[in-house]
Amino acid sequence: MNRYLVRIILALALIAGGIYVVQQCYFFNHEPQQRVLDELRGPAYHLQEGDIIFQTSRSSQSEAIQLATHSPYSHCGIILKKGDSLMVFEAIEPVQFTPLKTWIARGKNGEHIVKRLKNTGNQLTDSSLQIMKTLAASWTGKHYDSYFEWTDDKLYCSELVWKLYQRSTGIALSEPQRLKDFDLSSAAVQQKMKERYGEAVPLEELVVSPAALYDSPLLITVDDE
After folding, report:
1. Residues 45-76: pLDDT tens digits?
2. Which residue of 44, 128, 157, 215 could cross-link 86, Cys pair, CB 3.0 to 4.6 Å?
3. pTM here?
């Protein structure tokens, strides 16, 4: 092999090695920077309006809801924009918009799951979102419905989400159940019902639970933390 050819091979090897070193330096320096950027953006950067967020509430009724529905998720809300920020519109006392970080921190261990309507772009249009926002504005300040009645006078968390979707898109995310369809056998559930209803438990009342929304085949999981 002549010297000229050897020099060419050595030069190409050095160039290839240099490219590899640059790539590795970029990876090791850029990846942590990207992670920091993601953290600075906060939990909202990958979310969009209409997403439904679930958590295990630390409220006094959370255990009873979990036992009755056989699900760890006892509270939910919907992501909507308020001003320039994505917030959680939820039914607590009163119905309100809550900053996303505040909402997440309120749940057990800060854990939450976000679900999104399948084919969102085709089904959740700008006009549908506007209807959602108009309804949300009209419902803000309403009292929380601790009796789980199927009216708009007061609202509970999963009822609010279900009705926002049904009235803005025509989509029923789940079939409403009767109160009697849930597992009412545990002591915690019995005690909570006695506190709320006394001896006249409305077993035929229509109810939508957080668990039913979570299990909806119309939704996909987009975030799990």
Report:
1. 589 999 999 999 999 999 999 999 999 999 99
2. 44
3. 0.80
Q: Are 35 and 112 within one domain?
A: no
- Check whether residue 32 and residue 59 sit in a common domain: no
Rounded distance between C-alpha atoms, residue 171 and residue 217, angstroms? 12
User: What b/e sequence results for 50-87 when a residue is b if at least 16 CB atoms lie within 10 Å of its CB, and e otherwise?
Assistant: bbbbbbbbeeebbbbbbbbbebbbbbbbbbbebeeebb
Does 102 share its domain with 213?
Answer: yes
Cβ atoms of 66 and 56 within 8 Å: the answer is: yes
CA distance 19 to 26: 11
Q: What is the mean pLDDT of residues 153-164?
A: 98
We report the CATH number of the domain holding residue 105 as 3.90.1720.10
Backbone φ, ψ for residue 38 (5° rounding):
-60, -40
Q: Is the pLDDT of residue 36 over 80?
A: no
Q: Are residues 95 and 9 in the same domain?
A: no
Domain count, the chain: 2
Question: Residues 6 or more apart from 24 whose CB is under 8 A from it?
Answer: none
